[in-house]
Amino acid sequence: MKEKGLHPNNKFNKGYNFDELVKSNPHLKEFVSQNKYGTTTIDFSNPKAVKELNKALLFSFDQLSIWDFPDENLCPPIPGRLDYIHHLADLLSEEENIKILDIGTGATCIYPLLGVAEYHWNFVATDIDLDSLDTAQDNIDDNHLENQIDLRQQFNEQHILKGVIEEDDFFTATMCNPPFYKSAEEAQGANRRKTRNLGNNAVRNFSGNNNELWYVGGEKAFLHNYLYESSLFSKKSKWFTSLVSKKENVESLKKSSTKLGVKEFKVIPLNQGNKVTRIVYWRF
């Protein structure tokens, strides 16, 4: 199965070789079959199959061999997450000794793991949920990456950068995949719709804990809070970046950025399969 529209440097942009992936993760084998068109694939409505596929994709990197997290946490699609890393690398192509701040890293710690495996970057990764940080630390330790990835807890859910950026910090860039929904109820409704669209009522493929899925005010509120706090720490990072799911949020963010003294504001469109999203970059 070929992934559409991925970055040219993305190792998965020509599709999946399931024979090789099963070698990376033998647990994937029981979920691989041929569909009615004779194509080798998995059932993408089965969360266990999706998790084992993404483990196999991650384990195709030499540095990564262990990755585990509770089923209630979101399973990140590795090709799409890797695309953010590659586009960030394009932005930072002339930089040396790159250090990234990953906001809301989650239990999977996926961006730091991919950034280290692909580009040997260093990371500080934050989250508000202590259980997620404990799991993330296990994944870091199990892959012997404790010298390249440092975790910090955000204790105040009203803040994004405040409380985690320290006095002697300087980052080449920050990155973030913000919560999308405004409330737990909105997230649950979206889960039900997605499950129905897959035609599968038996399993729920769209897990995720509160901090991963929703934020009071939704994506727009989160992004504007992030933008405002970036102005308070404008000398602590060369670039501030984020994924933005809703197109209408880009325009309001751009208008606010001008008022806050942002000198450069860029948008990179991402077309991954049927999903259209984008990365927003700004700097002071």
Number of helical elements: 9
Label the structural class: alpha/beta
Q: How helix-rich are the residues, as a percent range? A: 25-40%
Termini separation (Å)?
A: 41 Å
Q: Averaging pLDDT over every residue, what do you get?
A: 87
Describe how the helices and strands are arranged:
Blueprint lengths: L17 H7 L8 E2 L5 E2 L5 H13 L18 H14 L7 E5 L6 H10 L2 E6 L2 H13 L6 E5 L17 E6 L7 H14 L12 H4 L4 H15 L4 E8 L2 H13 L4 E9 L2 E9 L1
Helix pairs in contact: 1-2, 3-4, 8-9
Structural overview:
The protein has 284 residues and is an alpha/beta fold. The chain has a single domain (18-283), classed as Rossmann fold. It contains nine helices and nine strands. The chain has a seven-stranded mixed β-sheet, with helices on both faces. The chain has a two-stranded antiparallel sheet with strand order 1-2. Strand 3, helix 4 (110-119) and strand 4 form a beta-alpha-beta unit. Helix 1 (18-24) crosses helix 2. The protein is globular, with a radius of gyration of 19 Å. The termini are far apart. Residues 189-196 and 200-209 have low confidence and may be disordered.
Could you provide a short overview of the structure?
With 284 residues, this protein is of the alpha/beta class.
List the main descriptive attributes of the protein structure presented here.
284 residues; 36% helix; Rossmann fold; alpha/beta; seven-stranded mixed sheet
